[in-house]
Hints:
Order of helices and strands: HHEEHHHHE
Helix content: 10-25%
Number of domains: 1
Strand order of the largest sheet: 1-2-3
Number of helices: 6
Largest sheet: 3 strands, mixed
Shape: globular
Strand content: 5-15%
Distance between the termini: 25 Å
Structural class: alpha+beta
Amino acid sequence: xxDAGNRFWExxxxxxxxxxxxxxxxxxxxxxxxxxxxxxxxxxxxxxxxACRYMSDSCRCTVYPQRSELVPNCVWLQVGDVAEFHWLPxxxxxxxxxxxxxxxxxxxxxxxxADSVHESGVSIRGRALSDEFVHxxxxxxxxxxxxx
Length: 148
């Protein structure tokens, strides 16, 4: 568990964080790596249970350093895009910190365990399909409601 003196996310803005602090905010849920559909009229975002082909069973990208080259539409969260974080799930640490909200008890920075996100049922582990097996025209058939 993090001690009170090391809870950087409570004392810094996203803009003030070091690259390693920024990366450590990721809880490993992998919800951001699910394909999403956006209603052109309303702007509402719908999550599907279709994950990027490079998502591992541990909910980590297997090609993280090369993700932008291998998946040109891969979303790369950056500080300058905070205003656009509305599409991230309500449980996402980047969104929570941007809104001045606390991290959940299951977040690895709070729990001290990288597995707590999976044990709490927040991650996509065991609930997603690889986009290798779903044609992009069929994503609508896989819209889900379990992403908050």
